[in-house]
Design a protein that fits this description.
3-stranded parallel β-sheet; single chain; about 10% strand; about 50% helix; metal-binding; TIM Barrel; alpha/beta; 5-stranded parallel β-sheet; about 250 residues
């Protein structure tokens, strides 16, 4: 991936700089500048899932439509409200669920599936330090989430969204091992920071384009409040909302 290319380029530049500048007295300053630039690029790649820096993530669709995706549920208060609205509007969405929450609310997972929505893996713990887990610990966490989903629904998810959108080389190895497809987004609703529903609606409607994968969260009351208007505005603009699997043309389950 891009990380390997950037690393190879950085090493090459580092070596050439040593040869060229060693006797000038500026070599160490140049070495430090190269190291800082490398760290900056790597940090950007880690926190920007669209960059595909460590692994390939699907962040846009292939069709002239959009997909709604919800992270961090299921939530007993807001997920049912969101499902009610999706059913009323006849819209299918994707829910990237946290395993420990799905474990507590299997009835919500069953409802999501029974109403034609897709369930994806969003890790078991969603721990704030998950990006620093060892490869084995990360594998166990993700595998546990898939196991819970499979135990409830009778099918194993293939779609995975990294918590916080952060990736690293360990994710690349684990996803390959577990046969999970990383799914990002092209448009953030910023609903985790929104003070009211209008901030979400205005942000999405002003920026949405065909092929967008929209990131929302089904554990937020403000997101549930905004959903009806959000869907209506999209439909009025002639933007079709389709299941994620159809938009990206990949199967969601093994």
């Amino acid at each position: 991936m891009k990380h390997n290319i950037v690393t190879a380029i950085a090493i090459t530049i580092f070596a050439l700089s040593g040869i060229i500048f060693w006797e000038t007295g500026f070599a160490w300053l140049i070495f430090i500048a190269i190291a800082l630039a490398y760290l900056a690029v790597t940090a950007y790649g880690s926190f920007n899932i669209q960059a595909n820096y460590f692994l390939k993530s699907t962040s846009r669709g292939k069709r002239k439509s959009i997909a709604l995706t919800f992270d961090d549920g299921p939530d007993p208060e807001t997920t049912p409200r969101i499902l009610d609205m999706l059913r009323e509007k006849n819209v299918k969405a994707t829910f990237f669920v946290i395993g420990k929450r799905a474990e507590k609310h299997p009835e919500l997972l069953l409802r999501i599936d029974e109403e034609g929505h897709i369930v994806g893996n969003h890790s078991y713990s969603h721990h704030y330090l998950i990006a620093f887990f060892s490869t084995e610990k990360l594998k166990n966490d993700l595998d546990r989430c898939s196991g819970i989903i499979a135990g409830i629904l009778g099918k194993t998810p293939k779609f995975f969204r990294p918590p916080f959108g952060v990736t690293n080389p360990r994710y690349a190895r684990v996803l390959r091992n577990l046969k999970l497809d990383s799914v990002g987004w092209s448009l953030r609703s910023l609903d985790t920071k929104a003070r009211n529903k209008y901030e979400i609606i205005n942000r999405v409607i002003s920026a949405v384009n065909a092929k967008d994968i929209i990131l929302l969260h089904d554990n937020r009351k403000v997101t549930a409040d905004s959903l009806e208007d959000l869907i209506e505005h999209c439909l009025q603009k002639g933007i079709k909302i389709e299941p994620l699997s159809k938009l990206i043309q990949k199967e969601p389950y093994e």
